[in-house]
């Protein structure tokens, strides 16, 4: 008996697999591009670093350059408890 | 029985898994780097504090105090728990190559003038956390700073500085000189010749 190619299910899973793969890869690339375009990783690390740098250098939150006048060693800050 | 690889779905999530594992590992590396950086900042902060403590106490002269501060920092830096992270692993870097010791007031532009001038005597060192500058595949870099400094900071300790023995002796000698000058036309002039400088390391 001759096997009719069009009326059997052979290869159905493969087609679905390819479609699913396309979907997954598309989602992955979209997320990847979002991370790169919006520099999300840099925002997560570089953003807080500026304020951390200020705290490390001057003992006050904010950019290091703008917080120099608030260093605890400054005469006006010796007994200050304000931020 | 021969396995038809086209009729099963094994490995369908491999691409997604690879993408997810890179993201998960990336965040783990970032968290590890942040933890190490904060730890190292704390360690270097103590190293500067220890050096500033050596610098602040009276010595023969200011150069001797500076030398001791540098020696103390170098001793702490050479510890096998710390030095490999700078020299071998290259996770961190000391900026400028050496410790800044002494009067660092000029680095603080709002330090006042004249009698109100603030004094920032102590120790400072630049630290760069190279390990925070990471490029993760698919997700980009953690560094978007355009100044080229990366994740760098300055770590200071200002404890002041006591007068050195040399400065005390010079101060006393100058004071006696002024006394000679002041009384040169008075009856006390002759008795002043009997005075000598005595310093007990206190000005």
List the helices and strands and how they pair.
The complex is a heterodimer of chains A (83) and B (203).
Chain A: H1 12-37, H2 40-58
Chain B: H1 14-56, H2 62-77, H3 83-87, E1 92-103, E2 121-129, E3 135-136, E4 140-141, E5 152-158, H4 165-182, H5 189-192
Antiparallel strand pairs in B: 1-2, 2-5, 3-4
Helix pairs in contact in B: 1-2
Summarize the structure in words:
- The complex is a heterodimer of chains A (83) and B (203).
- In chain A, 54% of the residues lie in helices and 0% in strands.
- With 83 residues, chain A is an all-alpha fold.
- Chain A has a domain at 39-78.
- The radius of gyration of chain A is 29 Å and the shape is rod-shaped.
- The relative contact order of chain A is 0.06.
- Chain B folds into two domains: 12-162, no CATH class; 163-203, no CATH class.
- Helices cover 42% and strands 16% of the residues of chain B.
- Chain B has helices at 14-56, 62-77, 83-87, 165-182, 189-192; strands spanning 92-103, 121-129, 135-136, 140-141, 152-158.
- Chain B is rod-shaped and about 120 Å long.
- At the A-B interface, α1 and α2 of A face α1, β4 and β5 of B.
Summarize the structure.
Chain A has 83 residues and is mainly alpha-helical. Chain A has helices at 12-37, 40-58. The mean pLDDT of chain B is 84.
The radius of gyration over CA of chain A amounts to 29 Å
The percentage of residues in β strands of chain B lies in: 15-25%
Bulk shape of chain B: rod-shaped
Which structural class should the secondary elements of chain A be placed in? mainly alpha
Q: What summary fits the major beta sheet of chain A?
A: none
The class by helix and strand makeup of chain B works out as alpha+beta
Low confidence ranges of chain A? none
Radius of gyration of chain B: 30 Å
Broad shape of chain A: rod-shaped
Number of strands of chain B: 5
The overall number of domains of chain B is: 2
Task: Describe the strand arrangement of the main beta sheet of chain B, using strand numbers.
Answer: 1-2-5
Proportion in β-strands of chain A: under 5%
């Amino acid at each position: 008996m001759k096997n009719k190619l069009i009326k059997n299910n052979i290869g159905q899973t493969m087609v679905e697999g390819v479609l699913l793969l396309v979907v997954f890869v598309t989602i992955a690339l979209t997320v990847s591009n979002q991370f790169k375009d919006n520099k999300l990783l840099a925002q997560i690390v570089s953003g807080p670093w500026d304020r951390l740098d200020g705290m490390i250098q001057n003992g006050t939150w904010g950019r290091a350059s703008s917080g120099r006048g608030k260093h605890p060693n400054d005469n006006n800050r010796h007994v200050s408890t304000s931020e | 029985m021969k396995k038809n690889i086209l009729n099963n779905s094994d490995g369908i999530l491999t691409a997604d898994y690879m993408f997810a594992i890179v993201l998960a590992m990336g965040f783990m590396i970032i968290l590890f780097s942040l933890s190490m950086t904060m730890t190292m900042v704390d360690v270097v902060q103590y190293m500067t504090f220890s050096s500033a403590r050596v610098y602040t106490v009276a010595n023969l002269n200011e150069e001797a105090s500076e030398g001791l501060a540098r020696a103390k920092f170098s001793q702490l830096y050479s510890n096998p728990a710390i030095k490999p992270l700078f020299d071998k692993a290259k996770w961190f870097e000391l900026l400028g190559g050496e410790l800044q010791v002494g009067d660092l007031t000029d680095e603080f532009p709002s330090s006042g003038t004249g009698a109100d001038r603030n004094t920032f005597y102590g120790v400072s060192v630049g630290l760069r956390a190279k390990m925070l500058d990471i490029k993760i595949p698919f997700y980009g870099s953690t560094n978007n700073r355009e100044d080229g400094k990366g994740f760098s900071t300055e770590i200071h300790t200002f404890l002041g500085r006591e007068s050195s023995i040399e400065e005390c002796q010079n101060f006393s000698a100058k004071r006696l000189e002024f006394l000679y000058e002041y009384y040169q036309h008075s009856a006390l002039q002759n008795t002043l010749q009997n005075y000598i400088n005595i310093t007990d390391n206190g000005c």
